[in-house]
Amino acid sequence: xxxxxxxxxxxxxxxxxxxxxxxxxxxxxxxxxxxxxxxxxxxxxxxxxxxxxxxxxxxxxxxxxxxxxxxxxxxxxxxxxxxxxxxxxxxxxxxxxxxxxxxxxxxxxxxxxxxxxxxxxxxxxxxxxxxxxxxxxxxxxxxxxxxxxxxxxxxxxxxxxxxxxxxxxxxxxxxxxxxxxxxxxxxxxxxxxxxxxxxxxxxxxxxxxxxxxxxxxxxxxxxxxxxxxxxxxxxxxxxxxxxxxxxxxxxxxxxxxxxxxxxxxxxxxx
Length: 270
What we know:
By secondary structure, the chain is α/β, with parallel strands linked by helices.
């Protein structure tokens, strides 16, 4: 089932910092857009990023806080709060991944068993979500990031194991439509590459997605039977980057991938 937000599970320390940050912003009479333009010594961030900070849904960087401490005239108080409340806080838990998707600059995903949620058709998603229409609609709304105009869509690369094309979800009609949708999606701003089925790369351990945020951080998302998890531990990310290098080295070029998807749709699911 699609992850749902649960305010009680937002990190209390991040939420406390966000509330103090918002008070400083409001005392200046600035909007989130004003703050976003001033951030990181004028390099700026997105207003969505500021909103996530204020609601405890992301862990901001020291560089961001140092700039805003000066802009707010906080005399080091905001930096001290960052040291106490943010520096060692755990990244918000699994249900916040849709917020990360909304604000990321780039997404790179590897799917071992199923089509990534951002590329699923409603019928394919409905099978996976056991007919829960509310959850299906929420998943379809997530896909809006691929076609939005402001801000521009993130750069997205979807690496898909060949087995995903062969694993039946629902019925042949649903599979044919899903594979046709992959072909159409690949003609837009999305890159889709098929990874031939092999057992000798780290990707066979499981699916994962890495988001590259506008403050230069990387956050990963992995799923288990019980739930999904966000990660930003450097060792975890290093392992995922190594897996990604192995996977990419075996992936078919885009044109060959699309040919294989078309051929599989016609030969297996027609």
